[in-house]
Amino acid sequence: MAEQPVCSCGSSCGEGGPTEGIVQRLIFPCAGVANTGQLTNCAAIQLTEEGYGKAACIALLATGAEGIVRAAKDADEVLILDGCAARCAGKIADSLGICAEQSIVVTELGIEKKGSREYTDDDIETVVSAVWEGEGREE
Question: Which domain of life, per UniProt (predicted)?
Answer without folding.
Answer: Archaea
